[in-house]
What we know:
Blueprint (H helix, E strand, L loop, with lengths): L9 E2 L4 E4 L1 H4 L4 E8 L4 E4 L4 E9 L1 E5 L4 E5 L3 E4 L5 E5 L3 E9 L6
Antiparallel strand pairs: 1-2, 2-3, 3-10, 4-9, 5-8, 5-10, 6-7, 6-9
Amino acid sequence: MEVFNIRDLYREKYREYILGSAELGKHSVYLVYGEVSCDEERTMAPEGHDEILFILEGRAELKSRTDNIIMSKEQAVYLNPSGSFTFKALTDCRYIMAGAHATPHEH
């Protein structure tokens, strides 16, 4: 068993803290921690991964071509592996994304 300090795992490209294949030595699962300021938008595209987005703090709007939902603290949503979503923070937000590979592939 190994303990990871999430603050040591910041990835500038994604503007998130990611515990993934580089740390775990496997491609089957990952965990993402994100912080988004009020009115900031981010694109969330699972690109073949099964993902669950969990709001730790704040309120956010999640939009896709077919859906538009408002999420609040302690709510979660499943993100379709083939979808693309816009995440807009309605207040300062913190979230966790848990993911798994729906179809095995390499990065």
